[in-house]
Amino acid sequence: MPPKKETEAAAPERDVSGPRSLTRLLGLFGVLSQSANGMTLAELSVSLESPKSSLLNLLRPLVAEGYLIHGAGSYKLGPSIYRLSAGVMSAWNFPNIIRPFMEELSARTEETVLLGVMNNEAEALTYVEIIDSPHPVRYQIPVGTTRPLYASAAGRLLLAFSDKKWLDSYLSSVVFKAKTAIPISRGALRQELEKVRQEGVSWSIDGYMKGLSAVAGPVFDASGRCVASLNIAGPSERFRSELDFLKATVKEVTNKASGVVGSIGAAPTRKKA
What we know:
- It is built from 9 helices and 9 strands.
- The protein is α+β, with helices and mostly antiparallel strands.
- It has 2 domains: 17-77, Orthogonal Bundle (Arc Repressor Mutant, subunit A), CATH 1.10.10; 82-264, GAF domain (Beta-Lactamase, 2-Layer Sandwich).
- The chain is 47% helix and 19% strand.
- It has helices at residues 19-33, 41-48, 52-64, 79-91, 93-109, 153-160, 164-173, 186-199, 236-264; strands at 39-40, 68-71, 74-77, 112-119, 124-131, 146-148, 202-205, 212-220, 226-235.
C-alpha cells in the first residue's frame, strides 16, 4: 500500500488544547518566522520534535483562518498572523524601548518620526509608532498606515537589510503598482538597495510624492537581523538644506537604538527534551 501524503496523514492525537499544544503553536510560528521560503510538514516535525499527526491538527485550522499559507508542499506565515503581529507590535514593549530614541530624533530634527516594521507576506511596510513634528507644516499619517516596500525610503531600508534569499525572490517578482513621484524600475531598485547597504541609511527627496522627503535607518537585534526602520519625514524644502545633518543624525540614533535592542538578547533556542 503506498504511503499516505503528508496532508492526508492520520491524526490519532486529537488533543489540540492545553500547554503542550500551545508550546507547539508558539514554536511553529517561531521556526516559520525564520524561514522565508516556508517549511514542509516533515521539516516542521523535525524542528519542533513533534509527530506529523499532532502538527496537522494545528496546521489545518491555522491555514483555514489565514494564519498560515499552504502551497507546493510548504507552510508559510499567512496574512492573518502579520495583521496580528502589527497589533501586537503596537502594544508590545518594543515601541516603548524605541520611544526614547524616537523622542531624541524628534527633538534633534524637529521632523515627524516613524517606526516601521516589514510584513513579508504582504510585501508592505507598516508604521506602528509615530511622533508628529512640532512644525505647522509637517508630514502626518495615522499609526497603522502601510506602504509597498519599494515605494518609501523606510521600506527600501527594510528590503536592503532583509534575508537575501527572500529578497532575491521579491526582486524577481515584484510588481510596481503604486504610483510614485519618481518612477521605480527593477534595475533602479536593485541599485538603490546596494546604495542603502553601503551608506547605512535610506533617503529620498521627492521620491514618494513631490514635496515629501525622508531619511531612514535600521534597528538591528542581537543576532544582527534588521527588525525595524526608524525614519524621519517632512517637507523637501527643509530636508534639502539639511540632508547631511539629517542622515548623520538618523544613523547615530539608530545605531544607539540597535545597541539597546541588541543588549536585550536574541530569543533563546529550544532545548531538546
